[in-house]
Automatic annotation (TrEMBL), chain A:
Manganese or magnesium. Binds 1 divalent metal ion per monomer in the absence of substrate. May bind a second metal ion after substrate binding. One of its GO terms (biological process) is mismatch repair. It catalyses: Endonucleolytic cleavage to 5'-phosphomonoester. This is Ribonuclease. GO terms for molecular function: metal ion binding; RNA binding; RNA-DNA hybrid ribonuclease activity. Its cofactor is Mn(2+); Mg(2+). Its EC number is 3.1.26.4. Residues 28-251 form the RNase H type-2 domain. GO terms for cellular component: ribonuclease H2 complex. It comes from the Eukaryota.
UniProtKB/TrEMBL annotation, chain B:
Gene3D superfamilies: 1.10.20.120, 2.20.25.530. Residues 31-91 form the Rnh202 triple barrel domain. Residues 94-224 form the Ribonuclease H2 subunit B wHTH domain. This is Ribonuclease H2 subunit B. PANTHER family: RIBONUCLEASE H2 SUBUNIT B. Residues 235-256 have a biased composition (Basic and acidic residues). The RNase H2 complex is a heterotrimer composed of the catalytic subunit RNASEH2A and the non-catalytic subunits RNASEH2B and RNASEH2C. GO terms for biological process: RNA catabolic process. Keywords: Nucleus. It comes from Collichthys lucidus (Big head croaker). Residues 233-256 are annotated as: Disordered. It is found in: Nucleus. Its main location: nucleus.
Amino acid sequence: MDLGSFQTNSSVSCRLASQIPDVCRTEDCCLGIDEAGRGPVLGPMVYGICFCPISMKEELKALKVADSKTLTEAERENLFEKVDGASSYVGWALQVLSPNTISTSMLQRTKYNLNALSHDTAIGLVQYALDNGVQLKEIFVDTVGPADKYEDKLSKLFPGIDVTVRPKADSLFPVVSAASICAKVARDRIVKGWNFSEDLGDVNPEYGSGYPGDPKTKAWLLKYLDPVFGFPQFVRFSWSTAQTLLDSKGVTVHWDDDEEDGEKAAQRQNNKSMLSYFSAPAGGNNQNPTHQTHRFFTERRLKSLDTL
Amino acid sequence: MSTKKKRAPHLNNDSWVVVAADSAIDTQKPDNDPTFVRLRNPSTDAASLYMLSAGDAQLFEVKAFDEEFHSWFVGQTVQRDGRLLFVTPMDPLYLILPYLIKSGKEGKFQPVDQVLMDEDFPACSRLLSCTRSLSSLRHVAEEKEVANMKFHRYSEEKTMVWLEKKVERTVTALKKRNIYVGEGVKSTTYVRVKSESDHQQEDYLRYAHGLISEYISEDLSKALLRHLQLPELTSPKEAEPPSKKRKLSDKPVEAGEDYTKFNSADFARKPAKKMSAAQKSLAKVDKTGMKTMSSFFSPKVKTEKK
């Protein structure tokens, strides 16, 4: 697993993949999808697929791949070596979504939520396998959101392929377990070797699990909060943990798509509140109501000043 | 989510991002810096900010590009005020003109340094130091020279000729820079297939007149409009809403109904219809302080508070 390209630019989404085994191009294959790092406020989310010929399912089972959550880090590393070593019939591919990608997707003007991002990433990986000639017949997915809806969506996108979306799929199907191990190992390695693009000096590596509930993570976030810029790119800004801290410790920043209280926003935009039509008309106290700045200036947002 | 962020008012800050001509900030003498001055804006009659270059040689107006949700990153600092100030050259005659007009009402020739006095804006006398000021007075005033002293008297006739030239020059500049002068809104990203050369000259004249009017009083602006022989526009807001569409026909108009029957003595009002129980109970409701539904839609209520 070569993480070099991601580590030189850790702000983007990047794909890592094994060689496609030749048998996968000729024989009917099954494919498992799983993700690692959905919940943490720190670090990337990694999506993984693993695929092998349906006839080789038992061999994969024999590798004793199991749900990544039940294993220690060392066991996972060990299992990944086994999966990667079985390159004659097992292939894998990963999509690393950097925390920055997650932040910018979720916080952009047209909101792109984590579920949609997850679904699209999974779809992208399946498409990658198909584009490389993998003869897919079965897909097994650990669910994101309601399982039947997700299953429906995937079945429609990939007609002719049998899609099974199931919660806990990573403990039910070995091919999903294998995908989950690949994803988890990649995430662990990335988080460990994170290159901070910000000039932070020696960064304290004690950020705990990265999950919002972890007091170590919270303390770390607080320590690296810059009042103007917020957090390093390692942090998912879109997490409410990060946002709450920014709201209380950071400088207030206003964006033009901020939601504001109706009355105030209307006033700011020079709209008339509905209520104003119902209140008693007050004497207009405008200084010079007749003077209207020429549209040359108003269109260009140019104003005269009376003081600096 | 953070929906209730309070927007504090902009505080005074001590730095600005300014775009200025070299001639505005050029200082040969270190003790003679360009200065910001508050002067009477000829159009609004209120204070506006201007800049005088070193030795008061040149006048500049100060305009701010001011749009919400902007801030600057300047070097290693953040500046909350996201405005961009423009310091652009301006003809000082525009600022001198209101004073000349005021004293011109007395009808006398006066030395211009006595005319340019303002309690509220004492800096206005500095306008006379501008290199253009004295030489350009002849465009708007009659001159008399007695014993090496110059006297001036405002002339509306000359001023109109001068302003007309300004309008013409503005038209040239507008055309050169492809500025859209037609009615209606045009998106900057919208590419027109047809070239805009078919715009009426009147559109350009009216637009240029509007621009010049930003620098002269309202009275002068109206006079200039007449001088340019442009009909005054009535804004659609003030105009009455169009009444119901009338059918066009050549036939003589006849009353559709015979109203004279109401005048006759034997006309009796129909007795009021009997009300249902629900209507009766509604009629008993205390209506004090309530407006009728129709009052919300009639034009009288338009005077809402701003």
